[in-house]
């Protein structure tokens, strides 16, 4: 049976991390890489694992690879601090490890919550995400934001979803989208990317049409409209921020 290491990166997550770690007691190993938390995050983590490390911030992808490199086992389950592994999901993962993984990486579905509400439409579910992987064959892309496991062309699919308490309220959602768009712009500018009018105006419109109409965001009522509209704003924002060639206008995040 393959053993499994759970990896988590954190920063000021005292509100979420205890709930997350409580759902991971079945794991063979838990590794936390923290980035200078100023709250009780590290204290809480040490109640669940002795492997808690501090690490200068290098971007989401690289930070997760650093965390995986500290694991004793080759099979990694990467979890965010605002996620919970349900008993059903844990059982399914353990079954895959016991029977022998047939793929180098696996998709896990997620139930995304906005506040206390599970969002089913608008592209929020099943939100399949690559999180279970063999670190000797797969790694995270070392991007500032929207990191993903690569290669991903031979991936398995698990059935039972993680629970993701993604945003507490609308203010939290808007603030984080602003931060993510800044990180996106910084990275694109560093790579010499420049937005044009199709990025600024056409893509936001297409984003709204996809999320609100094609993916039935309207089924969520006014919240569905808010989420589709906010995704549209985010799409415009991330490209608009790349128009400036002066990186000092884009404050460093994290």
Topology readout:
Layout: E1 4-10, H1 17-22, E2 29-34, H2 41-45, E3 52-54, H3 60-69, E4 75-78, E5 83-84, H4 87-99, E6 105-108, E7 110-114, E8 117-118, E9 129-134, E10 139-140, E11 149-150, E12 155-157, E13 162-167, H5 170-190, H6 197-214, H7 222-240
Parallel strand pairs: 1-2, 1-4, 2-3, 6-12, 7-13
Antiparallel strand pairs: 4-9, 5-13, 6-9, 7-8, 10-11
Helix pairs in contact: 5-7, 6-7
Description:
The chain folds into two domains: about 5-165, Spore Coat Polysaccharide Biosynthesis Protein SpsA, Chain A (Alpha-Beta Complex), CATH 3.90.550; about 170-250, no CATH class. It has seven helices and 13 strands. The chain has helices at about 15-20, 40-45, 60-70, 85-100, 170-190, 195-215, 220-240; strands spanning about 5-10, 30-35, 50-55, 75-80, 85, 105-110, 110-115, 115-120, 130-135, 140, 150, 155, 160-165. The N and C termini lie far apart (about 40 Å). The relative contact order is 0.13. About 35% of the residues lie in helices and about 20% in strands. Helix 5 (about 170-190) packs parallel to helix 7 (about 220-240) and helix 6 (about 195-215) packs antiparallel against helix 7. The strands form three sheets. It has a seven-stranded mixed beta sheet, sandwiched between helices. A four-stranded mixed beta sheet has the order 5-13-7-8. A two-stranded antiparallel ribbon has the order 10-11. By secondary structure, the chain is of the alpha/beta class.
